[in-house]
Specification:
Layout: E1 10-12, E2 17-19, H1 23-34, H2 48-52, E3 90-96, E4 112-119, E5 127-135, E6 138-143, E7 149-154, E8 166-175, E9 183-191, E10 195-200, E11 205-211, E12 221-227, E13 230-238, E14 243-247, E15 261-266, E16 273-279, E17 284-289, E18 292-297, H3 300-304, E19 311-315, E20 326-333, E21 336-341, E22 346-351, H4 352-356, E23 360-361, E24 368-371, E25 378-381, E26 393-395, E27 400-404, E28 410-414, H5 416-420, E29 440-442, H6 450-454, E30 467-472, E31 478-483, E32 488-493
Parallel strand pairs: 19-24
Antiparallel strand pairs: 1-2, 3-32, 4-5, 5-6, 6-7, 8-9, 9-10, 10-11, 12-13, 13-14, 14-15, 16-17, 17-18, 18-19, 20-21, 21-22, 22-25, 23-24, 26-27, 27-28, 28-29, 30-31, 31-32
């Protein structure tokens, strides 16, 4: 359900005093929500008609025609590398507590797991000023320029259990006409009980809910990814290692009628699927799992024929006896993969083209495998923490990569010179380099939190502040981070006086 915002305290560290939303703004926001008549539209409890006609994890019988070709409007393009002048000048702008359970302004326990900027359909490689965040039972849409929570979606207590948290989210831009002139941005979010939500923020509507595993209450979706060449195809990575592919369809407006159709299940080869990313050049779906790094060649004809997809395991070096628990993966460029192994204290970046050339069939002849040698990787020094699940984020244009730690700090890396070849490195088949240091570590600022003090709770920084996920806006203008203590942290590039 869409609900009005709690009057949570928002502290702007640059002003050093608490800021609350203006009551008139809250009234305007509530009045806008009251005009929305469509909320959780789907009434299906078993994942929709398609799910009822298949075994759990099996192939469903499509109730509508599925097109097994790339979207006609798809054109591959990649933003040019543009180095920013001041990658170290970031200052804290807004720190918001917007996912509070029961609207408790002193809730410091709800974990926020994901954040991502909304794509801008009119400008390729660009984003809007709105960032989506998910955690607890809610999804928030926040304008990073003014800190306003534009919309908040909260799972209705009638349809969600107390433990039905949201762990994953992803944006897609759907094309509504043949010419590509009419579009709509949707956000998919998912988590416990394998429930997937489809949200159209512009209209303020959650128009579809379905379960990927209808017969298993304990099933959890950990990762989501829309196919970049098929805007309605949604990959769902699960806690048991399975990856399902669904076609969520294009809703018919204004009724929003659509039927998600299960297309295939990629069998588990490791445990939890923590992250999914995609290389368009190689048509490669990449999964960071508890137990390894894997890639699948996404052949649309094989999916249509229910054939097994070609699989490759990327074998990374061990550090201090720690294996490969890949808790974060993302594409720095379409051929450059950034991967982080828990307990390694470093982030690896390497070329897929160079690595895939060396792959061979494994001994069991069940999959390809390739070893990523140390001299082929650019290695970034990162925290030596023994905590898991700190998810990095980046901007492919400026090549700024950010990863938080368990102290609330953000490690910022400026990689433009390495990607462009201005600095010779393994990314351009140059020499191996020593560990690359961050250009800046943004420390957790000292916050004034009146609501926590009023509730006589311990200070935010009493326990570890785990930064669960970071995201970077185009050009590195903003960094958004979400934390284990229910905070959305917005940093802005430039000197603080720029905002006066």
């Amino acid at each position: 359900m869409w609900n009005s915002l709690p009057q949570d305290v928002i502290t702007n560290p640059t002003l050093n005093h608490p800021i609350t939303y203006d009551p008139e703004t809250l009234e305007d926001f509530t009045s806008k929500l009251s005009s929305v008549t469509m909320t959780e539209k789907s009434k299906s409890k078993g994942g929709g008609p398609a799910a009822k006609r298949m075994k759990a994890g099996g192939r469903g019988v499509p109730l509508r025609k599925i097109d097994y070709k790339f979207d006609p409007n798809y054109r591959f393009s990649e933003a040019p590398v543009e180095k920013v002048d001041d990658p170290t000048d970031f200052h804290p702008l807004y720190f918001l507590r917007t996912h509070s359970k029961n609207n408790d302004p002193a809730d410091v326990q709800t974990q926020i797991w994901q954040c991502s900027f909304e794509p801008c359909p009119e400008k390729p490689h660009s984003k809007t000023n709105v960032v989506a965040t998910c955690g607890g039972s809610s999804v928030c849409f926040i304008n990073v320029e003014d800190g306003e929570v534009v919309l908040k979606y909260n799972r209705s207590t009638k349809t969600a259990t107390a433990g039905e948290n949201l762990y994953a989210q992803v944006w897609s831009t759907l094309i509504l006409d043949d010419l590509g002139l009419r579009t709509m941005n949707i956000l998919a979010a998912a988590g416990a009980r394998s429930t997937v939500l489809l949200i159209h923020p512009e209209a303020g509507v959650c128009y579809q809910m379905f379960r990927t595993v209808p017969n298993k209450a304990a099933a959890v979706v950990c990762a989501l990814l829309f196919h970049p060449k098929k805007a309605t195809w949604l990959f769902c990575g699960h806690e048991d290692g399975q990856i399902q592919l669904w076609d969520v369809g294009i809703p018919s407006l204004p009724s929003y009628e659509t039927t998600p159709v299960h297309l295939m299940t990629i069998p588990a080869v490791a445990r939890d699927v923590y992250n999914l990313t995609f290389s368009c050049t190689h048509d490669l779906l990449i999964a960071g799992c508890d137990g390894g790094l894997f890639g699948w060649s996404i052949d649309l004809q094989k999916i249509e024929a229910s054939d097994r997809l070609e699989r490759t395991e990327f074998i990374l070096p061990e550090v201090d006896g720690n294996g490969s628990v890949l808790d974060s993966v993302c594409m720095l460029r379409d051929d450059l993969l950034a991967a982080k192994c828990a307990l390694h204290g470093q982030i690896y970046i390497f070329s897929l083209s160079r690595t895939l050339k060396k792959r061979t069939m494994n001994k069991a002849r069940s999959q390809f495998e390739t070893k990523v040698a140390g001299e082929e990787m650019l290695k970034l020094r990162w925290s030596d923490t023994d905590n898991y699940y700190m998810n990095m984020g980046l901007d492919p244009g400026s090549c700024i990569l950010v990863c938080g730690d368990d102290k609330g700090a953000l490690w910022v890396y400026d990689l433009a010179d390495y990607v462009s070849g201005k600095v010779s490195s393994p990314l351009t088949e140059g020499p191996q380099l020593p560990l690359v240091e961050p250009v800046k570590i943004l420390e957790w600022p000292e916050l004034e939190d009146a609501e926590v003090e009023k509730a006589r709770k311990l200070r935010l920084d009493t326990y570890d502040i785990v930064v669960d996920k970071c995201t970077v806006s185009p050009g590195g203008q903003h960094i958004v981070a979400v934390t284990s203590n229910n905070m959305v942290c917005i940093w802005k590039r430039g000197k603080e006086q720029d905002d006066d």
